[in-house]
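pasting for the record
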Amino acid sequence: MTNVKALPFSLPPPQSGGVDLLVVAAEHSGDQHAARAVGELLVLQAGVRVCALGGPALAASGAQLLLDLTANSAIGFAVVRKLAFYRRLIGDVVRWVGEHRPRAVCFVDSSGLNLRIAKALFARGFTAKAGGPTKALYFISPQIWASRAGRRFAMAKHLDALATIFPFEAKCYEDTGLPVTFVGHPFVAPQAVRPVRYDPKGPILLLPGSRKGAVARIFPALLDAFLWYRSDRGNRTAVVLYPGDEMLNTLRAAQPPGEVELRRLEAGGEPVGASAVLTSSGTMSLQCALAGIPGAIVYRTDPLTYFVGRIVVKVAHLGIANLLLGETMYPEYIQKAASPARLAAQLHASVRDGSRLAVTQAQAERLRALLSEPAHGSVGEWLAGHLGGE
């Protein structure tokens, strides 16, 4: 995996001698969503040349991987410690786009990095909004409905188009003039393969996330809760799903007991059956919600990030399923509230309480219907439309 201190600048040139699309996806979930989009695009336009800053999923999709960014994702004030890396990365991406002039750049999620790259490309005159040859496209909107809504005006200035995965998001940009298209949520697409499923006899899922800093804080809390559950007549084992080998050392540092299996999450593999889940508030929490697995959300971050977050974030829930439904599907335990006793009680209720299961699965059905609202074409069609003919 790429090491931040030994990053191989500068970015390599396109292997084919030219490039039509550059994709930038800095996190594991964005890498997977971007890979599906590139796969769709290459079916529609087989000759399109795609380069990417992303991860293994994008590399497997047919894109030339210039740099594995997924090993370096950060959140909150952990980003501060990597500022030099990100500044250098942004400069290198801007130089690369200026030299190789792709028809479009597609930014995927990761607004902290991607909106800065878009702004820098605009400032250099490389993007279409600035009179240049390259369209600046964005897939998976920042959650402006949760915090920092004013970003939408800078986005409208620097971007040519936005594709959203939640049906309500287009209305958030109505006052900006930015073309916004709902392309459907990738988790409910016809070809989507869910990584998890409900199994009443299955183990408990422990899902601490995909960012090393967050995992280091959340995973010990999940383990403590599981051990408390086991000590109080709980008889289930546990499975921890992790996205890549770079996460293993962080997980092993918490010294999980023998009843806890560490299992790499393989794209396209058989879904893991589970009877309950303790999960961070990230992407996998939505997968578990769609599968109807009862459980709870656990969130821990450094005190400064939490303090600032309470001021900036303007929503009632952290979990996306809770937000979309407008009610609590997964109780949320934040910072010190995530005590072993409270979380263990959630595990017992998830495994034993039939009425809890019935409510969770009814909410999952509503959630699937909400995310399956008619979309205006797929993300691959959206990309193809902006790239034009071969």
